[in-house]
Amino acid sequence: MKKSFLAICFAVLSLGSFAEDKIYEAKAEARGYNEDGVPIVLTVKATKKDGKVVIKDIVAQHKETDKIGGVAIEQLIKQVKDKQNYNKVDGVSGATSTSAGFRRALRNAVKDIEKQA
């Protein structure tokens, strides 16, 4: 009886390790390319695994051009989420300033998440 009770307790405690990881969130902004100087604002949600930030979601608010900058931001978000390499994000051709602003904002958001406990 004691052994089966201990086995059940161990099994229940082990299931806790499969619980959803803590979600960290950070918001950062950087100037991209638009005539009004409105920055790209990224809200980044991530978890931490083995000391590394794992990006789960990125939401961008911006006033970049719909056909170039807006499309570029969507491509950059997909690239980061797919590759999980936020230190080396490839720029989008024709959207150099937007890509640079996105990278700066992303880098700042990830730094903020790294500091969060």
From TrEMBL:
Domain of life, source organism: Bacteria
Record-linked InterPro entries: FMN-bd (IPR007329)
UniProt signal peptide: 1-19
Pfam families per the UniProt record, alphabetical: FMN_bind
Keywords on record: Signal
Domain FMN-binding: 32-113
Protein name: FMN-binding domain-containing protein
UniProt source species: Fusobacterium periodonticum 2_1_31
